[in-house]
């Protein structure tokens, strides 16, 4: 059930595009600050499967249409008014948010989140699940869950203390304050805050750089850094050895070394 009529029922809630190795996914419900409906989750999942299956994709960017990035769950997508039948939110997390976070983390390429505007609730934490987060100066991050009696989901309770420490994580999660993009960058929650006027060109430059990088090497970096969250030093050293062995056989490694020796720019193919 949707409490709001969509502005245009034929408008896709997810826009997908791939060009020059850059896959772009745009959350596209701008009038509702790109909040998630079941339909949008379905379209997003299909788009992520397209990226996964497209051998030409070497970087993914996730962003939002309009003035917001994503306001989390669409609170009007189903009836939760007092007196109505209770909703099983565990089912929603299991079906939609948990697989989404895991899919973003597992993609074997860098995932850049271009936070163009406010990121609230699950919208904030889905941004944090991406590998590199760049935010426009006018954007903000809000752990809005406490305002409606919920716990940060989509990995929020995991990412926040790891990125900014438990004191700040607890404050954000319990108070639900708006954290400016600039403060988020200063705290180490995100990679960078960029002036609005320079945001699009900055994101494009990063995407071009990532799309021309040794993709397998970047995927291995992602895997190794994620693994530190559950391993001890010895296991991590083993993983680094295994990844390095694998990458040593890659065409991009050979190209990188040959380019260095020849003092010319490398031409990586992602192989
Ligand atoms: O439920 C489950 O399945 C479990 C999973 C939960 C995950 C979650 O994400 S729970 C948290 C849900 N999100 C929120 O609680 C955030 C709600 N939104 C806000 O607090 C504010 O909209 C913002 C702080 C994000 C932005 O404020 P502002 O003043 O810039 O914009 P606005 O005027 O509030 O919003 C613009 C429109 O978008 C407005 O509609 P209107 O008045 O123009 O018709 C507003 O109602 C709508 N909107 C914004 N967020 C949501 C939303 N509509 C539905 N659901 C939303 N989350």
Describe the protein.
The protein has helices at residues 38-53, 89-106, 122-128, 156-164, 166-175, 181-187, 196-211, 215-227, 233-248, 251-261; strands at residues 14-19, 22-27, 59-64, 68-70, 111-115, 118-120, 132-136, 140-142, 178-180, 192-194. With 271 residues, it is α/β, with parallel strands linked by helices. The strands form two sheets. The chain has a six-stranded mixed sheet with strand order 1-2-3-5-7-10, sandwiched between helices. Helix 1 links the parallel strand 2 (22-27) and strand 3. The radius of gyration is 20 Å and the shape is globular. The termini are far apart.
Briefly, what is this?
With 271 residues, the protein is α/β, with parallel strands linked by helices. Helix content is 45%, strand content 16%.
Largest sheet: 6 strands, mixed
- Averaged pLDDT, please? 94
Counting DSSP H or I runs of 4 or more residues, the number of helices is 10
Cα-to-Cα separation, first versus last residue: 46 Å
Task: Furnish the topology, listing elements before pairings.
Elements: E1 14-19, E2 22-27, H1 38-53, E3 59-64, E4 68-70, H2 89-106, E5 111-115, E6 118-120, H3 122-128, E7 132-136, E8 140-142, H4 156-164, H5 166-175, E9 178-180, H6 181-187, E10 192-194, H7 196-211, H8 215-227, H9 233-248, H10 251-261
Parallel strand pairs: 2-3, 3-5, 4-6, 5-7, 6-8, 7-10
Antiparallel strand pairs: 1-2, 8-9
Helix pairs in contact: 1-2, 4-5, 8-9
Bound molecules: ligand T3D.
Ligand T3D binds next to helix 2 and strand 6.
């Amino acid at each position: 059930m949707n409490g709001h009529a969509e502005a245009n029922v034929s408008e896709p809630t997810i826009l997908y595009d791939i060009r020059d190795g850059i896959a772009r996914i745009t959350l596209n419900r701008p009038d509702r600050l790109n909040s998630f409906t079941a339909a949008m989750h379905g379209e997003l999942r299909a788009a992520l499967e397209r990226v996964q299956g497209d051998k030409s994709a070497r970087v993914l960017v996730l962003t939002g249409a309009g003035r917001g990035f994503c306001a989390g769950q669409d609170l009007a997508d189903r009836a939760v008014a007092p007196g109505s039948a209770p909703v099983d939110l565990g089912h929603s997390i299991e079906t939609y948010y948990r697989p989404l976070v895991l899919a973003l983390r597992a993609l074997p390429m860098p995932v850049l989140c271009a936070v163009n505007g406010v990121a609230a609730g699950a919208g904030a934490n889905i941004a944090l699940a991406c590998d590199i987060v760049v935010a426009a100066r006018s954007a903000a991050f809000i752990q809005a869950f406490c305002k409606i009696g919920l716990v940060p989901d989509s990995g929020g309770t995991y990412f926040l203390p790891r990125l900014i420490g438990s004191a700040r994580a607890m404050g954000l999660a319990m108070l639900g304050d708006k954290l400016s993009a600039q403060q988020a960058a200063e705290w180490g929650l995100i990679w960078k805050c960029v002036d609005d006027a320079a945001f699009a060109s900055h994101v494009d430059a990063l995407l071009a750089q990532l799309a021309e990088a040794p993709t397998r090497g970047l995927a291995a970096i992602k895997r190794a850094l994620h693994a530190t969250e559950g391993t001890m030093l010895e296991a991590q050293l083993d993983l680094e050895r295994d990844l390095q062995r694998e990458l040593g056989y890659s065409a991009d490694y050979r190209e990188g070394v040959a380019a260095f020796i020849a003092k010319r720019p490398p031409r990586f193919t992602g192989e």
